[in-house]
Each structure stands twice: as C-alpha cells, then as structure tokens.
Write a structure and sequence with these properties.
mainly alpha, single chain, 11 helices
C-alpha cells in the first residue's frame, strides 16, 4: 500500500500521541495505531497488525531504558513472566494468518472494552504501593522490589500469586501474537490486579515485556509478508518519539491519574473496533 507524503506525516503525528499514551499506560501504541490504520487509512488489518508489532518493539525500546534507569521496571519479574508470554505470542502469531479481519477486529474490541472496564473497577484503589505480604514464590525467585513514589517516599512490594500471573501472561502473549498489540493492557492487569504490584511498577515492567513478546512473533509476520515498511516506518518512528516523552512524564504522575487518563481512550477505540468487527451500521 502506498501512502502520500501528507498521509505519512499525519500517521507519524498520530503515532507520537499513541506512543505517549502507550508508554504511560504500559500497553504499547498498537492499541491506538491499529484502529487508526484500519478506520482512517483503510489499511488491511493484517498489515496494520504487522505495523503494530514493529511499533510495539519501538515503544518498549524507547520507554524501557528510561524506566529501568528510574528504578520502576522490575526486570527479574518481567523475565520470569516472559517464559509464558513468549510461548503464547508464537502460538498467537501462527494462528493469526488464518483468521479473517472481522473476528480479529471483534477480539480487539472486546480486549479494549474489557480492559477499560477493569480499570474502572480499579479506580477505588487509592494508589497503594502494592502488596508487602510474604509469598513462597516471591521468596524462592526473589520477586520483590522497591521504587520511589511521589514525594520521594521509598515503597517496597512483593509479587503475589505467581501461578495466576503466569497463566494470564500466557493468554496475554497469545493475544499479542494474534492482534499485534503487545497485549500490554492485559500484562498491566495481570501485574497490577493479580500480582498486586504498584501501578507504576506494573506499567514500567509491562513496557519492558511487550517488546520481548512482540519480537517473538515479529519474524512470523515478516515471513508471511504482513509487515509493509512504508506503513511500519512512520508508525515506529512516531511511537518511539512518543514513548520517550511518556517515559519522562510517568514518574511525575500518581497511579490514579494514569488509570483515569487512559480509560476513555480504551473505551472509545474498543467500541469502534467492536462495531466494525460485528458489522453494525450506525
């Protein structure tokens, strides 16, 4: 597909915004880029997913370095969970080639709306620093950490319910490979809700993980011809710039602000994809 210079510039600008939002919420810019490419630019969803896979790697590369430097990402927890996520991503990528566009759009819409609903339920959380309860898995694998919260207060946390987290990460990986979105939304939910990590740590660790997950399935999409460099290049460059900007903003925000800002974005885009996937005429 050929994009005009103006269309490429517009896509680059939108991708910057997607990168900022994806970096702040730890979900990857693909959640925004795929609907934009399919709805506004009329790109086939398989090519949109291919571009998103590349953009997810860019988002992770741009934000992860800053989050590791700031002490927000927990690399040990991320690498343990990647064992399940990477396996799921490969399976999802293989299956995606034989799935028509409409079911993919419907699945993406369900994931987005469900994520928004889950985040609404989490708004009652006051932004507590995460669980500090002793845990046998956390003790054996040293899945603990600390980070500096707003006001310079140092907060400790301990990962909870590792088996549940691993199961959710396997599912998140499958969705990532299937939809090319990095499944950061599901990763954040698993880290934040199931494993009771602080929201900022969940977001930062998810940003690190989504790049590894996307890389596991990118080769399959490339071999299938679903990555068009004319589309993927402006998307990846824009999202990388946005991700770097978002990584500078996140340490200054409270957990609740991160949730509130992203809920309407997830809900609107998810609703649009559901409408397209189900073929509803409004």
């Amino acid at each position: 597909m050929e994009l005009s210079a103006g269309a490429s510039a517009g896509l680059f600008a939108i991708s910057i915004l997607a990168g900022v939002l994806g970096s702040l919420a730890g979900v990857g810019g693909g959640l925004i880029v795929i609907p934009v490419l399919t709805v506004i630019y009329g790109v086939d969803i398989h090519l949109a997913i291919g571009a998103s896979i590349v953009s997810v790697i860019a988002t992770s590369s741009g934000a992860a370095v800053a989050y590791v430097r700031d002490g927000l990402s927990n690399l040990r927890i991320g690498m343990v969970l990647e064992l399940a996520t990477t396996l799921g991503a490969v399976v999802g990528a293989v299956v995606a080639g034989s799935v028509p566009a409409a079911p993919l759009e419907t699945i993406l819409g369900v994931v987005l709306v469900g994520t928004a609903a889950a985040q609404v339920l989490r708004l009652t959380d006051s932004g507590a620093p995460g669980s500090r309860e002793p845990n046998v898995w956390a003790d054996r694998l040293r899945l603990t950490g600390s980070y500096t919260g707003v006001g310079g207060v140092r907060r400790d946390y301990v990962a909870q319910r590792l088996p549940v987290g691993m199961a959710l990460m396997g599912f998140a990986g499958a969705i990532s490979g299937l939809l090319g979105i990095g499944s950061g939304a599901l990763k954040v939910l698993a880290l934040d809700t199931a494993m009771r990590l602080p929201m900022k740590v969940s977001t930062a660790t998810s940003n690190f993980m989504i790049g590894v997950t996307a890389a596991a399935s990118a080769g399959i999409y490339l071999g299938r011809g679903d990555i068009d460099v004319r589309i993927a290049a402006p998307v990846a460059l824009g999202i990388l710039a946005g991700a770097l900007a978002g990584a500078r903003i996140l340490p200054r925000l409270r957990d609740r602000v991160v949730r509130v800002a992203f809920i309407p974005v997830l809900a609107v885009i998810g609703g649009e994809m559901l409408i397209r996937g189900l073929g509803v005429n409004l």
